[in-house]
Amino acid sequence: MDEKVIKIVNETRWADGQKVRSRLEDITYNPMQIQEEFIMRLIRENANIEYGRANGFEHIRNLDDFRRSLSLTTYEDYTQYIRRIANGEKNVLTAYLTEHISTVDGLKQLPQSRWSVQTGYDYGFCTGFYLAGHHGYLTEGMTLNLIDNSIERLPSGMTVGSLLGRLLFKRDIDNDQVYVIPVDVANLTSRTDILYLQALFALKQGNISLAICDRYDYMLELFRYIEKHWPKLAEDIERGNPYIQPDPKRADTIREVMEPHHIGTMMVEQLWPGLRCMMIYDVDNLSASFELLRTYCGSNVHFVFTGICSPEGTFSTTLNLDDPQTVLIPDSVFYEFKPKEAKNYNQLLTLDQLEIGRSYELIVSTLSGLYRYKTEKTFLVVGRYHDTPTVIIDKDAGR
Fold first, then answer.
1. Confidence (pLDDT) at 191
2. Which of the residues 64, 299, 330, 367 has an alpha carbon 20 to 30 A from that of 259?
3. Is 132 in a helix, a strand, or coil?
4. What residues does 179 pair with on adjacent strands?
């Protein structure tokens, strides 16, 4: 791959990230002003759609009207609407163009408007690229991509599947230029086939500076697969096959690293010396096995925990390397919060009323047509960035 092209793409990523980070700096100083502007614009621009007319959006004049007029909702309140949106109907839940439908646990489907997809890209990808670039870790290397990007296109033109996979296609030019693993690998039906090709392409390329994955255990699974199958992979790289050109020199390097390697120990720095940063999206499920991933990576690899996001919305975004604490995004969704200990939803709080050290269940209104929606997510407030709360997932929420 042309190193000049890779450098240009990475510099563009960093520039995009700088713009988003600059916006985040501004909006976190007066988050409630941004929140009120957000919800009133949402109500105003959706007053003439079906859901807006049915719920009297035209009569809502302020935040109190909004909270008084609309009841709380759950997924079951939207299933009929979502089915119609998937069939191509417009102006049902939102006036904004629906671009994608995310699948959740193979059962739920949630529509994503164009603005919601862009917000996810800005705060889920660009802020991570900014942080990696700010610390000099984006560099001229390629990106090891383990995000599930298997999506399908409906007759209406919408895509269906993983939201993170959809975000990869926001800049199609990047796909063939900087990603080590071709994006269509995820469309294979066999997990074994996918793992083989991921390992083959990853080992073949020594010039990697960044890795991204939607589930950190996918990265762990890849490393374990390489440990078990490296002799066959090195042989295929040496001889070449229908997927890659032969590269005996790279095959020799792999053998030199892996022959003395001990299972479960550091290998990343030796196989990919330029890999200094990983972007991790699975912040909901970080566990003890994440420490094993750190062991494979060694002390020279840093982590960007990209924030708390789901098909319901992009809620928080990263601030610092190696820090799972992320800041709520004032212009992403409108937030309401039920204190964890509260017996009912009668006294919901707004973003400015949260207290450090307390946990809250999250209710959101979004750019994709969810209104006062119970996410069933519980956050623990751990600090503030400017005047905006920083949060982590409350691991004790279900206990």
1. 76
2. 299
3. helix
4. 143
